[in-house]
Specification:
It is built from five helices and three strands. By secondary structure, the chain is of the alpha/beta class. Strand 2, helix 3 and strand 3 form a beta-alpha-beta unit.
Amino acid sequence: MIGQWLDSIPAIYISGQVKQETTIAACPELHLRQLGDQEINIVDIVRPVTKYALMVREPKAIHYHLSKAMYLATHGRPGPVWLDIPLDVQSAMIDENTLQQYDPNEDEISFNTNLLVSRLKRLYKN
């Protein structure tokens, strides 16, 4: 994954996770590993080398996050993205008509081209 980050190679990683109620985020005071749970906070581990890393917490948001991950992996400077999906989200029954939709305009990068050109000209004059 670090190679994909450095070389701008788009990739989508999807990991499974324990139920949300037994994640470290839900029970920070417990030492889950001592209880035999195999949960790890993978999102915090991969965030520095991904364009987008998120645990999907709401079943109706799965389409939104998958679409956003696909878009971000392949637009701008391409790179890896990671979605972590807890077991209760994976197994949830959902009505496809109620899924949240993603609009790429949310992540569109806009900048003032004239301002950029003027600053570049000023930079190269010095």
